[in-house]
Amino acid sequence: MACLLCDSDLSQAPALALGPLPPCNRFGEAGAERQPLTAVQCPHCALVQLAQLPPLDWLRPRHAWIRYNEPSAHLPAVAARLRAHCAPATRVLGVGPFEGPLHAALDWATERASVAAPGDGYLEAWQARLNAPGAGQAELVTCRYLLEHSHDPRAALRGLASLLAPDGRLYLEVPDSSKFLAAGDISFLWEEHSCYFTEATLRRLAAAAGLTVQALWRYPGALEDALCVLLAPGAATAAAEDPEEFSRFGAYRAAYPVQRAAYAQALAGQRCAVFGAGHQAILFIHAFGLSEQIAYVVDDAPDKAGSTIPGSTIPILPSASLAADSALDICLLAIGPAVIDKLAHVFDPLRARGVRVHTLFPGAGSGTLIDP
User: pTM higher than 0.85 for the full model?
Assistant: First the structure.
């Protein structure tokens, strides 16, 4: 078991084992095959990563309607920064399914192209394309929210760099894991993310791939920030070690059994619903062993209506079910703070009749069910 960034031996590194879990995209399959989900931190470079990489076919969803949305409100600001750092490019190449909004925001009168998605176009299917060397012609290559999925991130960066002209630049965007690690939010782990980057580990990866960081920007999010980095060919010195990186993951690991026991106690004998059928809710239910304690999950997405949570028989019901459920004791919210505010008309009546309504996410600005 070798580190995905520096090849260090991970066999003795302290691990956070959540047990065998089903993939979070296998809606309607109570018997979905399970794979172990274990997070580990490299003792040398500090990258948090999955200890066992799941098979790609196991990760692939069986439903054509599954699509992922990535943050885009910050892209006009990113485009302005790129225009300030790069000469107007005549050849811009986007790699991945999330490049269109950024290229539109750049608004350069250029030849713009996107690498076609291989196979069914699912995110994991991009890995072979990312790792393959290309013919360097692009003055700017952009790749958003793919690197954290890669089972070989160094090869992925080198493959992306091979698409560049000699004086080209590579723009990357990844989720920053610092907030959820510091908050002890177990639900942010996901079988589809093999790597959990921070600013320091992203810089180390760039150096390991033979790239230098020209600029790095952070755009705040309620639960996780966007890390945006502009890279150029050429070796660079890796970021220095920060002892806080190791203590943060140590505290994260230690929080898991405490939280698991606290949720088991808090939900005992209670009728509980979860609002939101995204991967964080699904991970939460299975990682904390709560399949028998959750009565149903609420989600108004048409494609999820009438289905069940992956790996369980927990039904997915419309939001109207909450108002009709007079026996409900607890409603746990697996949605972001901004969405919670927009749905006050749903949650305020629940609180008025004594239902305890709490976010699932530590650090979201309001207390969780198990907070003191």
Answer: yes
